[in-house]
Description:
homodimer, alpha+beta, CATH 3.30.1330.10, Phosphoribosyl-aminoimidazole Synthetase, Chain A, domain 2, 7-stranded mixed β-sheet, 5-stranded mixed β-sheet, 11 helices, globular, ATP-binding (chains A, B), thiamine biosynthesis (chains A, B), magnesium (chains A, B), transferase (chains A, B)
Amino acid sequence: MDERTALGLLGDRLSAAGDDAAVLDGQVVTTDMLHDRTDFPDGTTRYTAGWRAVGASLSDVAAMGADATAAVAVYAAPAFDEAELADFVDGASEVCAAVGAEYVGGDLDHHDEFTVATTALGDADEPVRRSGAEPGDAVCVTGTLGRSGAALRLFDRGGPGDIERANDLFRFEPRVAAGRALAGRATAMMDSSDGLARSLHQLAEASGCGFAVESPLPIDPVVDEVAADADDRLELGAFFGEDFELVCTVPEEALSAVRADVSVELTRIGAVVESGVTIDGESLPDRGYTH
Amino acid sequence: MDERTALGLLGDRLSAAGDDAAVLDGQVVTTDMLHDRTDFPDGTTRYTAGWRAVGASLSDVAAMGADATAAVAVYAAPAFDEAELADFVDGASEVCAAVGAEYVGGDLDHHDEFTVATTALGDADEPVRRSGAEPGDAVCVTGTLGRSGAALRLFDRGGPGDIERANDLFRFEPRVAAGRALAGRATAMMDSSDGLARSLHQLAEASGCGFAVESPLPIDPVVDEVAADADDRLELGAFFGEDFELVCTVPEEALSAVRADVSVELTRIGAVVESGVTIDGESLPDRGYTH
Lengths: 291, 291
């Protein structure tokens, strides 16, 4: 059973599951696990790891249109180094502070592989689900795409300054403020952690619709520095994922007012259609990052 | 740096940390990680694993005197087997239902070692800390001690029926109802997950007091079936830990009224004193389960 099938099974059994976060009495809660081999390339500092791991859960809170309130983490490692642990806590605390939440601690565990499990909480007066997109709505994405994919290339390259830049790119700002501005106005929303293409397919499945996306996508300029060619650029920008931007649908007539209230760039990349997920008229494959 | 030192560092840096759960605006949140090698002996079913992992976090909520509301878990395994995952979700859901909380789902992750990260939430109008014990208070423990240690012996022995009994013993009921009845009346409380001895030392340190404990301790009868001798019986009952009972201090004059409201047995095992942790007048070592 692959992970998507397994997640579907969870969604079928648990009424609160199946979105970026579970909703319970006006509160959202979401949990995630990241680990060394798949999520923290060689060169990732513990400060960046703390920021990114907690940020991933805060991004799920943002994707519900919720106000992030608190986060906790389990830090599991083969051994506890004081400086590394302090750096992790600093990164975790600062990403919380960046979105107005509080990092309230967590637990430690011994584990062969460095592993972090994070949970974030938020208050949602109007939680935005994945299921409300309607044909005719605009489909939009916050910020730029491809930063994490580009970071991975920089970690691999490891030239002068590459590791530091890669760490910078890895420390994304969760889009909590944008999510709040979109609450009550976006018809459907999720984060792009699985990549834009897969996110669109997931929104399409949850909403029973399709998407007609048009280039150019808001791919980050850093991708041009590391991409081998145009195909590779699209791979990093639309499929790689781990970018933690918001992908949302907004009624066309509300778009300009929403844009004015969202402090980060909100790019219209296309429209909701009846069925099919396409880019420039061609099928956009349902593939991307599998966590 | 050992785990206790590292946890101390976390407590120093984070104002909300340092107790069984973090407290934030009348809510408690706690997170924990369990994994195959140290927490789930061979023979542990996925149903028991789901129950026990989520139960461990619900126990931390109980130890704050809070009302458990919800739990989430990350289920990380080398592969996802549908029946195993369904059993895990059933166990997680049923331990939540047993204490009036809701299991609202979580996430999946690929990991070489079966690993579960759980987070539980609760509402606390009067959170009970570890720090309020006063000389003269009675020190009490809920239920019986040594069940998890005995279960481990049964898992090891693996005779006819042993594995099933061990699984039964492993599925403890988190003491949420007892914790609620103790809120506002216990002066200090924590759970016995690190073992009674270590729990007493931690309460002593947080409260700046000591404990004079007297035998007999409420050691579960199942311990007598597996213990080699009296020393081994005390080892399983007082040091092994992982029992998830509540260890609390209660003013002597309030004890009989509290007992009447706590549905589980609440055994007075001694008194709070100025300093030192003793059993029958002899020093009780500060050792136990290190997570």
